Amino acid sequence: MLEVELERAVAGQEGHLAVLLPDLAGAGPTPGDEYGRARLFDLTARLLERLAAQRTLMVAIEDLHWSDRSTRELLAYLVRTVRRCRVVLVVTFRADDLHRRHPLRACLAELERLSAVQRLQLERFAREEVALHPAGLLNTPEPDRALVARIYERSDGNAFFVEELARTYQDAGEVRLRDSLRDILLVRMEALSEPARRVVAVAAGGGSSVEHALPAAVVELPEDDLVAALRAAVGAHVLVVEADSDSYRFRHALMREAVLEDLLPTERSRINSRYALALENAPHLVRADQRAGRLASYWYHAHDPARALPAALAAGRQARRGNAFVEQLLLLQRALELWEQVPRDVLQGLCGYDCADEAYPGRPPTVGGGADTARLRFVDVPADATIAASRSGDQELSVRFARTGLQHIDQDTEPEHAAWFCLQRSRAAHYQGHTGKQEAEQARRLVENGPPSAVQADVLHRLSTCGALTEPTREHLTIGQRAVRIAREVGARAVELHTLNTVGVLHVRVGEIEEGLTLLREVCVQSRGIDDPYLQTRAYVNLSAQYEQLGRSEEAVETAREGLAIARRYGLNPTYTAMMLNNLADSLLALGRLQEAEDALASMLEGAASTTWSNNLLLLRAELALLGGDLSGAAEYLTRISNDRVRDRQPQQTLPRADLAVRVAVRSGRFAEARAELLAAIGHGLPSGFDDFAWSLLVHGASAEADSRGLPDAETGRAEVLERIRQVAQGLSRIVPLYEGWALMLDAELARAEGRNTPEVWMRAVEVLRPTGRPHPLAEALFRAAAAHVAAGSVEVAGALLREAEEQARKRGDTELLHEVTALAQRSRMPLDPTPPTERPAAPAQTPDPSTALGLTARERDVLQLLTLGRTNGEIAQALHISPKTAGVHVSNILTKLNVGNRGEAAAAAHRMRLFLHAGKP
């Protein structure tokens, strides 16, 4: 169509326009008189106006930075002339290619003065956008976060570089420079003079950013020549001047990498050696907070181990003081790499320093004592690296360093050191989703007969923590209290507060709630007096978790926000932030504040790299998907938590997953699967101390049994399942309103599963749950109470309960429950909007057919009844004497009217609504 219009628009002017449209050249000779240029400009404008007469026309001109003068002048003419039609000119150019004297700069300056011109700066990709780009290239919905981080860091968010690095990873399995990309990056270097190339090479060796005085001290050029070379590099867009400083950096990090790779090894070593010497002679050339790290880097890349090792250790200590544990870890890894290359006299001159962990034992005295006890040993370096790896979020690396330390320790002569390394392996196991009890027991055997010490106290603390994570008892509380006494005796204040934190949790979980909460609040206050942000964060994590598990969600949110502020103020690694965000999102979900919960989950994404927190993130995402009615999404999130990943024996991980799996299965109509999930979780009983998770699981398991009443396949074994639920529930606490509410709901669900209607029990549950201020599980209790009153004929009471259930379900954001509330109201002919009593319709003399209230025809009702029995379209057709195609049409209509996605969900909805009870069939 457009081709035809183009032919009409250029008719008679083909020769003139052939300069722009070469395909028209065959129409005749191209005029070449003195007015040809002006005529071409005018005809081009008219052509665009004709084509835009009936539509908006967009003309794209790409890569204007490569254009000639005539093209730029034509563009300026069109911008000023084409005003009477709907023409949009979209022009692209690379700002990086516009050096100071580029001719396009003057053209752009003139154009930007016009009111019709808008300049849009396409910013570099943010980290989230970088994650989306490789996802498409690598054909994966969610690329590995570590891969995204590497691509983001190396590409600086440049879209072209992101794509190139992603393709390199796809082809070679690693993120590195392709030869073709390296050549592209080095093209700009080729245009520079030899002195400028030399200065750029020196700048590349200086780091990601280098102060003017440093290359001035390193490069062998007069000051004027150095300035001229730097100006040329800046003009060619190789280097840029950093704002408000005298420093330079490469426009693209990959360009610096390409320049470094282009150097000979000896050239790079010599450049770094000169930088190191210049910095040692004139420390003021670099900011104090960067000096140690830069010096360590220079000596390392200068391949001078004797100087690099002490520099790396000093820089590592400085990084630790600033909570820069990722940087500290890199420096300690270099120190371990260099240790064997350093002369013995240098090693003997290394002084020891305090480990990041208060419980790390000091060097045992040698015979005769002496200065040797203050010397740094090799084992001290992996000890420091173990803590640095843990605090940077890399628990696997922490375990490897702990193993390295154990390999260099004689457990008979230094049992405390060996116990300390075992202890770190136990802690790392916890962050990987396990309890670490085996490693903690090994540590206990090493120190249990020794004198009181900080490490002994910490080992006992770890054992009490393992109990708190699995099945908290008074024995674990006693162990923790003993650890507190030892820590006080030896003056290990941080260990004491960490242990008091765990003791507070144990008090709560054995039923001494106020005593435990008081202790946890005291630890939050006292931890502020110690410069240990990890202790402070852990205190707030545990206090907020206990508040939530007791049903005090508002207090949990407030506490979690306080802890999150501490974690962010200290710049703790994302894993620790993720712990707090997990608690915050969980409590916000319980309160029905879904948008705030989603915001917390979005922030949590960055730090959910470890198994435990990625599992939690997936569970929370699944919960949100289920609330929104996205059953397939919820099921997908659950399947991504494989059985191997939840075999951590931590009930706080396994029980919520089982609970969610039961609910997803029920809403999908897979009642056998729901029963299997329940029995797998409670088959061997439930541990004490996790009553909040246990009550919810039992209630939803009993609800599944009630909803499946009447299904032939579900009848077998129901009595045994219900009895098992009762047995497990006898060991649970009802000490707080939330637990009592769950317990009453369980009583009512068990009765419903046995065919008994108990509206009075449901009402007691509602009354207990209302004061908690949480829409969950109040909304469920209200709905069930309303249904029970409808069945009992108490329509007035049921109507009020349904309206309250709708309000709470809407607050909770539970679309499926809202649908059930609406369906029950329609079946019972009760308006959800309150109306004056005189205007309410009179109650029907007899209960109407609920399937009719849903809009189902008589034939669709018959089809649905057979569908709930698991019949196929062919079997339905045979039973009703219709064709399979007609049966399929009826099934489609039923799915639409019930607002469900598949046959299983339709069957589940029919059973939940008890559509066919009056017929004596399921």
Write up what this structure looks like.
By secondary structure, the chain is mostly helical. The chain is 65% helix and 2% strand. Strand 4 and strand 5 (247-250) form a beta hairpin. Helix 24 packs antiparallel against helix 25 (493-509) and helix 25 runs antiparallel to helix 26. It is flat. The two termini are 61 Å apart.
What does the secondary structure layout of this molecule look like, with pairings?
Layout lengths: L1 H9 L3 H4 L18 H16 L5 E5 L7 H13 L5 E5 L11 H9 L15 H11 L7 H11 L3 H14 L6 H12 L3 H13 L2 E3 L1 H6 L4 H13 L3 E3 L5 E4 L2 H9 L3 H17 L6 H14 L3 H17 L3 H14 L5 H5 L31 H12 L3 H13 L7 H17 L5 H11 L6 H17 L3 H17 L2 H17 L3 H14 L6 H17 L3 H17 L4 H17 L3 H11 L6 H17 L3 H9 L11 H17 L3 H12 L8 H17 L4 H4 L2 H12 L7 H17 L5 H11 L5 H18 L2 H18 L2 H13 L22 H4 L4 H10 L5 H8 L3 H15 L4 H10 L10
Parallel strand pairs: 1-2
Antiparallel strand pairs: 3-5, 4-5
Q: What attributes characterize this protein structure?
A:
single chain, 922 residues, mainly alpha, 47 helices, 2% strand, disordered C terminus
The gist of it:
The chain is mainly alpha-helical. Helices cover 65% and strands 2% of the residues.
Query: DSSP strand (E) fraction?
Result: under 5%
Major β-sheet strand ordering: 3-5-4
| Helix proportion | 55-70%
Q: Unreliable runs, pLDDT <50, ≥5 residues?
A: 365-371, 835-848, 917-922
Q: Determine the structural class based on helices, strands and strand pairing.
A: mainly alpha
Task: Let me know the number of strands.
Answer: 5
Give the N-terminus to C-terminus distance in angstroms. 61 Å
Number of helices: 47
User: Can you tell me the overall shape?
Assistant: flat
Sheet with most strands: 3 strands, antiparallel
Q: Please state the average pLDDT score.
A: 85
Radius of gyration in whole Å, from Cα?
36 Å
